[in-house]
## 1
Amino acid sequence: MPIDKELLAILACPKCKGDIRLAKDGNGLVCEACQLLYEVRDNIPVMLIDEAKKVDDPARV
Amino acid sequence: MKCLVTGAAGFVGSHLVERLLREGHEVIGIDCFVPYYPRWIKESNLQRFPSQPQFRFIEANLLDVDLTALLSQGIEAIFHQAAQAGVRASWGKEFADYTTLNILATQHLLEAAKSLPLRKFVYASSSSVYGDVTTLPMREDALPRPLSPYGVSKLAAEHLCYLYWKNYGVPTIALRYFTVYGPRQRPDMAFHHFLRLLLEDRPIPVYGDGQQTRDFTFVDDIVEANFLALQTPAVGEAFNIGGGTTVTLLEAIDVCQEVSGKRAELDMRPVEKGDVRQTLADVGRARQHLGYAPKVGLREGLAAEWCWVYDLYGRQGGHQQA
């Protein structure tokens, strides 16, 4: 089940508090400014900085 | 009604979410899975309610979330259950976790709540704010003098709730929980620990002489108190939420043995720093203002917790380390 739009609207990047968007494969949330990918595990967005993955080219994620 | 439950994967939080969903409310749950006890136990708490459109869960730290955006989604009530738990672990450099997660996080939530038309902001406080009082039962007008850094952090956050009511009109109410027990109790808490030791035929450690008394409160009574807090016109106040009876630790261990049908050796140890000698809530004020009356007795409550402990460790094949 993909993450719903309402939930996406209330989430922000925990690091910069800026906007995030759904990753292209739908399995994570991307903060382009911080180049971080926050995973969605079992429909739960994991908005923890320590758990986020660094991505080199966020525009492609 | 749309609600926010912080600490939604925890002991009290998960029970509260379950009841809110059962009564048709919409819930946003948030929990940062502090590593105070194993993650798999909190994950199993969350699995108790099925995935449904009325429930959204976010794994995040309250300090890192855009709370203003989150609350402005029509949240009408906040049940702030999230905390760094543990009286004995709150000494030393670990106190920084307690100030951050218990005081600062509460202040962030209150700050975000101050411009919203909330029905109620219910704060989960603790009997540990009292410390060793000279008279029992403990009344809300007694001078709070915590005996542990944990108690200090819970009391500080309670004062913040009052401040935000007084200055900004945030309709806060603090519920001082007295030793909560029941299914999903944290593994560091006495009954969970004792019942697990009984299950595994290991000795039960007793700190002090075992004559210390506690007012034990079953989790369903705590959840009910949260619902009552939502409905009461009282604001800016603190209420004791206890089970209404007092038993000694040794008597409670007897009941644990009875409900489990097992017996254990007692391992007597010295008193721990921060442990208060006696707790007993005067729930008169909660009865008068909230209509609160505890319903579940110790034997019934412990029998329910034993079934849960048995299922939890039995289901995991007994290999999980808590």
## 2
Amino acid sequence: MTAAIEVASVGMRIKRATLLDGINLSVRPGETVAIVGPNGAGKSTLLRILSGDMTPSTGSVLLQGAPLKSYSADRLAARRAVLSQHVNISFPFTVEEVVRMGAGEMARAKAQPLVDATLGEIGLNAFRDRELPTLSGGEQQRAHFARVLLQLAVGEAKHGPGVLLLDEPTSSLDLRYQINLVEIGKRRATTGTAVIAILHDLNLAARFADRVVVLHRGRLAATGTPRETITNVMLRDVFEVETNVDLIAGPLPHVLPQAMQAV
Amino acid sequence: MSAADAAAPAPVTPSANRRRRPRAVVVAVVLLVLLLAVSLLAATIGAAGIPFHRLLPALGLGGTADPATFARDQLVLWSIRIPRIAIAAMIGALLAMSGAIMQGLFRNPLADPALVGVASGGAFAAAFTIVILDNAIAPNAAAKAFELLPLAAFFGSLVTTLLLYRIASREGRTSVAIFLLSGLAIAALANAGIGLLIFMADDRQLRDITFWLLGSLGGATWSKAGLLVPFVAGAAVAMPFIARGLDVLVLGESEAFHTGINVERLKIICIVLVSAMTGAAVAICGVIGFVGIVVPHLLRLAIGPGHRLLLPASALFGAALMVFADTFARVLAAPAEIPVGILTATIGAPFFLYVLLRQRALVGS
């Protein structure tokens, strides 16, 4: 099976600094992948390479078997959607107008049912006529998530399952919507979308991901199931905290703040 | 009621800040009627007044002509007043559209080609043409006025816009403070250059430059109006192609790319459009400021920021506003004419301050 998205021996150097080195990662359709790691590990750089914002200094990126560079902006947009970390807008677009931007060139009448469905799924129906700059950070983030989901849905209707890239999608969200977002991401994966998210909350990452990718100083420190990667050894080597992830019994590891100690 | 229902908080119904957008057709009709009404009003007012009951016959739209005044009315209308109204409308449309496009491009409601030096860059290039190239091509003076001046103003505006973009944008983000301040510096530089040219100019050139720098629509002719037509038409053709891109660009350059926009191409199209429109306007009537800020800002309050409607609406509203301002400039100190640039600046500058204070958060204080 062709990988949904694949990077091989990817390295990124800017001037003398090495941001990424020797990254190999292949994500299957329908797989959920969490990218975790300490600050400055190269997570955002990797996501920007996957999204096409950056061209790596070395190595290759393939989207559905073809080099990422061979896609034009609009063909790329039909196959992968990206939720950026911070989006500030200075014009008073309403929530509905922002979400509709995800529908691209699609005629307004044709897009409207999709816009309505997405607003409903994200729980933004009551906010649809509000101007985005008047909303809280979390509400704005959800509106942008809805826009990105709509873009994904429009693209997938034409070209089949695509790739969803999320850069710290939960950073401004309250607990309820963090869980909500993770559930929506997993739901998309069941229909074949490859979902890749940078997550800081390791417990959320364990709940979300089939596979966790641990980055450390620009290199892959570990990759595997949450059980295999979120371990006491990894937390000590990569995050420099001593802890015990097995204090609570169950299939998933638990990283408890009470049990942590900085090395 | 299930446990899940009980856990979910009742949906809040936010009634504050609700925005319903007016329909595009309604907006278009209202603005067209406004433009028509202002134009008719402008046609009746002037040194030779033509009251309404004489206006329709003189326009050839029926009614009974008064033989005593008919010939004079017709002459005044067709050779003085109507070309002037046409030029005012097209200049207003060009300035308002270039303001709206520039604001979209820089994601900043305070951008205006006149304010940030783009118009000054065009004016400098045009003044350079008047003073320096004058001697070189004196035998073809007529050709100069109609072909070289707009071309020079366009390149002057283009160079300034590119320079401004280079300075103010870094990694897809534009700092509002750097943008405005660097625009100020560029305008100061261009104005210093114009000052030098004025210093070097002989008496006739001096009169040419000064009259035209003040921003006046005096001396309107059909041939000048004809010169503006391709620019207005070009902008009208380009508008639908850049509208969606400018909407998405509001999210940021990366996001616009993620959404499928060829950002580099969009930026180039916008920069060329803004430079061409500003350059054409400057070449005909000098620097007229603030129309590009006032018009799109008022329209965004009424019809929202979507460019598909904002750009054509700016053209119509800018046209109406300019025809009105020019008429006002003609009657305020009649029989003398106040240059309309002075009038727009008098109204526009306080308006700019008002927007600036409302947008304080954007400037980062």
